Every structure is written in C-alpha cells, then in structure tokens.
Amino acid sequence: MPHVTDRARLKQYQDLLSVPQDVLRAAALNGRIKLDTEDIGQENFQALLWDLLFSSSHSHPWDHRGGRSFRGLAGYVEWIMPAPHQLTIQASVAPRVANYLLPKTVTYTDGSHVHFGIPGLRIERVTARAVHLLHLPTQGRLELREYHRGSLRTMRSRLRWETGSSETSENLAFWYTAGITAAEESASPHWDPTPCTPLRSRLMVRASTWWRHWPHTAEIVPPRRSNTSRCLTWRKGPSPTEVCDLLVNSVIRIAGAVNVSSPNGLDGSLLRLGSAAIELTRPS
Q: What is the pLDDT of residues 122-157, one digit of tens each?
C-alpha cells in the first residue's frame, strides 16, 4: 500500500477511482490507503452489491421495481470509497438511490413471495448529508452521501418523498426496524459467502473505474468457462487483458489477484483470487 505522501501515487488513485484528494487523505490509515476490508460481513455485503449493480438490466430477481434498474443506479454515482466497516458512495441524489435499494416484499396467497430491493436492508440513520444503510444479515454498511450539505430536515423530507413514505408511512417504519422477516431470511443464498466473495467485494470497491472512465456497458452474464462463477463483459473500453493488468499491477491492484489471459488475448481473460476466478470479456 502506498504512502499518501507520495503525490504521484495519490494522483493515480485519484485518477483511477475519481475520489477527491481530501477524501483519499482522510481515508488513510497510518499514512497508507487500504481499499479492501477485513470485515467478513462487510465483504459479503459488498460482493452482493457488485452482483446487483452489474447485473444485466432487470435480470436479477429483486430488480423489477420499474422506472430504472440496479445497473442504472451507476448513473447517480460520483465516486466510491471504502472504510474498514463501511462503503461510501457519493451520489447525485442519495435518497433516490436509497429508495431503489430498500426492500419491499410481496407475498401471494399460496405463500410464495417476491422481493423488490435488497432483503434485510434497513435505514440505520439519516444525517444532513447522507442516508446510512445497514444490511442486517451481514452487518454490512453503506453510506449514500451527497456533495452538498443541506439540513437534516431537508434530507429526511427528500427521503420521505422519494420513498413515497409521505403517503405510506408504514414503509418508512419498517425500514427502521431491527428484525428480519422469514421471507428475507430465505434470500440468504445471495449473500452467503462463497469462494468468489472476496473477489467480487474487491471489484465493487473499484466499480467507479468502469463507471467514471469507460461507457457503462459492463454487465454480469453467465460464464462460458467451467472454472468460473461469473463473466463480466463490456462493449466499449479497454481490452480484458488491459483491465486485468490494471487490477493486478496498478496502484488499485487487488492483492493476490492473478491475470490468467489467453495467449492471443482475444478470448477474454480470467481474473483469479485464491481458488475463485471471474471471466472478463469484451466482444469484438
């Protein structure tokens, strides 16, 4: 991890992650920047977020609220910065992003149910500048903050308006509860740890590299290779080999990750961390 006094490296972090320099300096621990959490619950939650925010439009079973999609939320994101026990996303309209992520469950007469948003996600607190969310099953935290600081009253009012809670106050009350429902617990396979969880969590931390520098065409599709669990594909931007090289050798490298590229670089690359790998492709 680089010392933040190294201005050249700090500038590289800023360029690749689009995080303001003052935020990078404030996030330093003992003069160093650490991107990846050691908190297992936070890691599980960040891996879940990556699955959702890079899912193909409305392909995820929780992504059917209408009007936008999980993947479309990237249009509101300005930058992402991790902390040991929290992920911070600065968004242009934080209450709107929160509204799409907060859960709602519809139960049918036969006992089956459908989830909208993230089961188990709750509002931990609201401040003048941010909506703080807590995922109860993993204890992972997400701060959705805005650049401009308003008043606490204004932020709460905007959150009520975005969520429609001015008309249906029971929604807002539920999103502050500390308990998780049985229907929400049934969704646990989506956040349970797997060998691929650490890699997906690390890709989530670096998501703004895709969103801010290249056209956001990246999406998760079924993998082709038998030794991978997911395939991330995009239509424009650098080659898979170049992306792997960035994630393995640059200042935002994923410690321990290995680039397993095809000899000609035309058939995509594998980004491997431990026993897990994700396929990276860019169709020609």
A: 999 999 999 999 999 999 999 999 988 889 999 999
Decide: 190 and 115 in contact? Cβ < 8 Å: no
Residue 284 CA to residue 274 CA, distance in Å, equals 29
Residues 192 and 195: their CA atoms lie apart, in Å, by 10
Alpha-helix runs per DSSP H in 102-181: 152-163, 169-174
Long-range contact set of residues 226-230: C-beta below 8 Å, sequence gap at least 24:
227/270, 227/277, 228/270, 228/277, 228/278, 228/279, 229/194, 229/195, 229/196, 229/276, 229/277, 229/278, 230/51, 230/196, 230/200, 230/278, 230/279
Q: What tokens were used for 169?
A: 């106050």
* C-alpha span between 82 and 156 (Å, rounded): 25
DSSP codes of every residue in 189-243: GGTS--TTHHHHHHHHHTTHHHHHHS-S--EEE--SSTT-SEEEE-SSSS-HHHH
**pTM score of the predicted model:** 0.93
Separation of alpha carbons 35 and 81, rounded Å: 8
pLDDT tens digits, one per residue of 195-239: 999 999 999 999 988 887 776 789 999 998 888 999 999 988 888
CB 131 within 8 A of CB 95: yes
Give alpha helix (H) positions in the chain. 7-17, 21-26, 40-53, 94-101, 152-163, 169-174, 182-185, 197-205, 208-213, 240-249
Neighbour count for residue 49 (Cβ, 10 Å): 25
Residue 36 is classified by DSSP as: S
Judged on CB neighbours under 10 Å (0-12, 13-18, 19+), 46 is buried
130-135 and 276-281 strand pairing: unpaired
Work out whether strand 269-273 and strand 258-261 pair parallel, antiparallel, or are unpaired.
antiparallel
| Tally of CB atoms within 10 A around 26 | 11
